[in-house]
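Researcher: Let's do a round of design. I'm pasting the structure tokens now; please hold your answer until I've finished.
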């Protein structure tokens, strides 16, 4: 029995060993296909990579070089050529390990040494770059490019020290001037860009700081500090969408970053309120938009841009609501905060027009045009304000009826009836009084005719008097005002007219 069991165990063991042998053969065949490509296959990949690189098809070329490296990991040329593709794609950080591997496999490979030195120099690593250039010169003392690059490395190191010294003593203007030359020599150095950005912030030039921090944020593997600073700068400038994008980049690197998360919550809340307010304005829900901008000022009371924006847009909403007096107050406050804001001046001018204070409207439009001579809207607004001022010096139909420019038809007719009853010539006894009443009555009737006719009212609101003979086609100029309905009921005898105002 024991012999039988032992025999069974041996057969089972032999079966397992046989299976393992077969598995090893299969794996060996697969690995040979992946890692042990034949020289012919490797050469094919290298040749295809070269052709595709020459044709500018970088991604396809890179794929073939990947296959070449996998097929022969001991060939220094495959690493070097793949590094060349990485550099053509602008991926210097990816090229650097391949160049280093090529140099390890062949220490006297001068082309790789020189290429790595150039990358290190652009990254601001002067000591390491100098070692590569010196290694090239040790093998080839007359190598002109290596000699020139070595001099650049010495110059860069000197400039770096000068810039840091200027920054330490608080002389940011000098530091910025020196860093200009530093960054020309080492455009891929994040430290120099971050230092210059810090100086620009101290000099009150945040947009220039953004221009340096934007590439710097990508030059380090984990540059949360740069993304955070970018978000803060965009936020301070009122660019809340850009601020939100940058702080999100920080959280992609570390979702638990406390500073970035705190700023993210603030920017997201404010951005949502601002977008909502503008959407309400686009829907002509002006009172709700004003309330939303009040929320904006409560959410961010410390950054001037957002208070200024809230005041400016509230001014605009009040004009659209025809709340002229309140609009002038808010617009004036906004104008004090931003004296050169043409939108505030435009809106206050429109509020003055609603109040029939045309001279002030002309002044605001003229001031706005001083800041933007090419703005068509301001040019048209100024022309209209001038026309309204000219008409007001002749006759202003709104003033004649004593109604606001925003009065509706019912309010106009009501005012007309009241004044027509008051100034009807039959109410006066002396001839002089009747003549004066007649003139007023004609003006009242003219005002009613113009302001109750939508087309005529539109012309008048645009600065044109539709009853002025000068504005009539083929008109001949001046002369006495005529009865608007084509005849004068108060001439030609002792006629007495009674008007039914019901």
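Researcher: That's everything. Go ahead.
Model: Designed sequence:
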């Amino acid at each position: 029995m024991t012999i039988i069991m032992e025999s069974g165990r041996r057969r089972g063991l032999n079966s397992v060993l046989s299976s393992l042998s077969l598995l090893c053969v299969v794996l060996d065949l697969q690995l040979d296909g992946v890692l042990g490509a034949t020289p012919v296959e490797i050469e094919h990949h290298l040749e295809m990579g070269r052709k595709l690189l020459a044709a500018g098809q970088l991604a396809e070329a890179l794929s073939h070089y990947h296959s070449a490296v996998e097929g022969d990991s001991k060939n220094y040329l495959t690493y070097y050529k793949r590094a060349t593709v990485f550099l053509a794609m602008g991926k210097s950080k990816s090229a650097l390990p391949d160049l280093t591997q090529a140099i390890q496999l062949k220490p006297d490979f001068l082309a790789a040494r020189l290429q790595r030195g150039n990358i290190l120099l652009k990254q601001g690593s002067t000591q390491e770059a100098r070692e590569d250039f010196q290694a090239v010169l040790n093998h080839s003392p007359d190598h002109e490019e290596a000699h020139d690059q070595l001099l650049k490395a010495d110059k860069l190191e000197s400039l770096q020290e000068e810039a840091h010294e200027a920054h330490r003593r608080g002389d940011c203007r000098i530091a910025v001037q020196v860093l200009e030359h530093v960054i020309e020599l080492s455009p891929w150095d994040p430290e120099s860009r971050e230092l210059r950005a810090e100086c620009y912030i101290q000099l009150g030039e945040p947009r220039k700081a953004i221009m340096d921090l934007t590439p710097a944020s990508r030059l380090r593997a984990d540059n949360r500090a740069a993304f955070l600073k970018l978000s803060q700068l965009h936020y301070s400038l009122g660019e809340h969408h850009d601020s939100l994008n940058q702080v999100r980049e920080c959280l992609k690197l570390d979702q638990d970053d406390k500073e970035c998360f705190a700023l993210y919550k603030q920017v997201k809340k404010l951005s949502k309120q601002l977008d909502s307010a503008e959407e309400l304005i686009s829907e002509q829900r002006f009172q709700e938009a004003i309330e939303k901008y009040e929320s904006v000022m409560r959410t961010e009371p410390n950054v001037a841009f957002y208070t200024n924006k809230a005041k400016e847009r509230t001014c605009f909403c009040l004009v659209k609501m025809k709340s002229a007096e309140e609009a002038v107050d808010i617009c004036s406050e906004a104008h004090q905060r931003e004296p050169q804001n043409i939108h505030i001046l435009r809106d206050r001018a429109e509020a003055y027009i609603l109040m029939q204070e045309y001279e002030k409207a002309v002044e605001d439009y003229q001031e706005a045009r001083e800041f933007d001579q090419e703005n068509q809207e301001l040019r048209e607004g100024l022309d209209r304000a001038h026309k309204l001022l000219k008409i007001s010096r002749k006759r202003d139909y709104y003033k004649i009826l004593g109604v606001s420019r925003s009065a509706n038809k019912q309010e106009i007719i009501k005012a007309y009836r009241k004044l027509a009853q008051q100034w009807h010539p039959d109410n006066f006894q002396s001839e002089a009084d009747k003549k004066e009443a007649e003139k007023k009555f004609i003006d009242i009737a003219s005002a009613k005719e113009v302001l109750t006719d939508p087309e005529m009212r539109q012309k008048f609101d645009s600065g044109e008097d539709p009853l002025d003979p000068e504005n009539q086609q083929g008109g001949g100029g001046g002369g006495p005002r005529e009865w608007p309905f084509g005849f004068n009921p108060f001439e030609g005898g002792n006629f007495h007219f009674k008007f039914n105002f019901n």
